[in-house]
């Protein structure tokens, strides 16, 4: 993001950025104060607030914006995120305020719907929206360029992971499985794109398993670089312990990559076993290895899974389709807010 607090993005949208300073609780408090202040100052320029990350700013701003007649939309991106707020007093207070003042809750999976209902949220306010993607199909030109720049043979089998390098992604399972894969496919390469707290430990595991020639840590990639990587890959792997609806998985399916995924609801709502790839037991290292080898040894079946994967997510998950759904929801919520304000300000309501 540009250093400036106010700029226009590549699509011409005006952006006001709030950059916190300090560290720890002071940083969070300053950020919350700045967000609330900016919202109050600019209250006449917007009608809908879309909260992507719960935090101190929502604790103060959500009820205030409700009183001012604004529409509060909260998005929880993954399973367990909302329930995790129960672990602290501030989190429980946030949940209470969200239940009372959030006009809509956006979730990513059926499992998250059960979570929200168990926390006491009105089911009518909970809306499941798909992850939005560019919808780009894989590019042979990008495939060749990516491999050529990294001196990777055009026919070398490549498995791709894109996402945070964190414990819940179970990447240690994927590495353990890949040590089995290379016994059958000595040229196989695993590319881990992204960064996170587990990177050092995973790098150590690669050395321990003698996989240095078979694993590439690509680091953080922008959207264009991710598309190039997906074009260069043959299989996408996501063996996480928990997911909402993985945007990376949807992007991979749109790029016609078959997937090897763990059998959790966030994955199986997208991937059908042997139709879009392979579904394996969570933590099943031998099963992960077997699935990867199976797909590599069946080139026609792998290509067909890739084609079916793209048909599964395009056009339902394209940015245009998802944006249209958001606009429809926002319109409905604004109508309700208008009725609410009219009732509040009517003479009868003050008698």
Key words describing this protein structure:
351 residues; alpha/beta; six-stranded parallel beta sheet; 12 strands; 14% strand; elongated
Explain this structure.
The protein has 351 residues and is of the alpha/beta class. It is 48% helix and 14% strand. The chain is built from 14 helices and 12 strands. It has helices at 24-41, 56-67, 89-101, 110-118, 140-149, 171-184, 199-208, 223-232, 247-254, 265-268, 285-297, 299-313, 319-345, 347-350, and strands at 6-8, 14-16, 48-51, 71-75, 104-107, 126-128, 158-162, 189-193, 215-219, 235-238, 259-262, 277-280. The protein has a 6-stranded parallel beta sheet, with helices on both faces. Strands 3-4-5-6 form a 4-stranded parallel beta sheet. Helix 4 (110-118) links the parallel strand 5 and strand 6. Helix 1 (24-41) runs parallel beside helix 2, helix 6 packs across helix 11 (285-297) and helix 9 (247-254) crosses helix 12. The radius of gyration is 23 Å and the shape is elongated. The mean pLDDT is 91.
